[in-house]
Specification:
This protein is α+β, with helices and mostly antiparallel strands. It folds into two domains: 44 residues; 116 residues, no CATH class. It is built from two helices and ten strands, in the order H-H-E-E-E-E-E-E-E-E-E-E. A seven-stranded mixed β-sheet has the order 1-4-7-8-9-6-5, with no helix packed on it. The protein has a three-stranded antiparallel β-sheet with strand order 2-3-10, with no helix packed on it. A hairpin with a 2-residue loop joins strand 5 and strand 6. The radius of gyration is 26 Å and the shape is elongated.
């Protein structure tokens, strides 16, 4: 252990001697400034980053959102009508949260409905971190079958793409 302490002390002593040289200080400061500029450009220009621009949703691909299903219970067959989006880009989105984060259809985003990945939360009241009765946040398509909603109140909900038809009742 003493051997490593001696080595560390020698390295620190050498670095302190180098730091006293004006050209090393100027070069070190220049490197730090360049790294800060590059890092901030990458951080700010990342569309999914905290300062990334929130884009408007593309136009809807259809107009028919639901048709009634015969029988009791006031149920409907729902159709996704949203337009396709680009992965990794923030899109402004208003999520209805009054009856939970995915009732009755989950978000209509990227031409599909989405199911909440957290199986504890579906069809329950709005959890902490989400506004009620609707939350004005943004959606990001993370991968082909995964999307996230980022709440205006700080919550994040992860969704998986629904691949089958959806028949459900309305939230009252």
């Amino acid at each position: 252990m003493d051997r490593w302490r001696r080595i560390a002390a020698a390295v620190v002593g050498r670095l302190a001697q180098l730091w006293r040289m004006p050209q090393v200080r100027a070069g070190g400061a220049g490197v730090v400034i360049v790294l800060l500029v590059i890092g901030s450009i990458l951080f700010v220009r990342n569309p999914a980053g905290p300062f990334g621009r929130v884009e408007p949703l593309p136009p809807n691909a259809g107009t028919l959102t639901r048709i009634p299903v015969l029988g009791s219970g006031h149920r409907f067959l729902f159709f996704p009508v949203s337009g396709r989006v680009t992965a990794g880009v923030k899109y402004g989105y208003v999520l209805l949260t009054h009856c939970g984060l995915d009732y009755p259809t989950g978000p209509d985003f990227d031409g599909s409905f989405w199911d909440l990945a957290d199986s504890v939360q579906p069809n329950q009241n709005t959890p902490p971190g989400f506004a009620q009765p609707e939350d004005h946040g943004y959606m990001i398509l993370v991968s082909a079958n995964t999307a996230e909603f980022h709440s205006s109140a700080g919550g994040v909900a992860r969704y998986t793409r629904r691949t089958k038809a959806l028949i459900a009742g309305l939230c009252m």
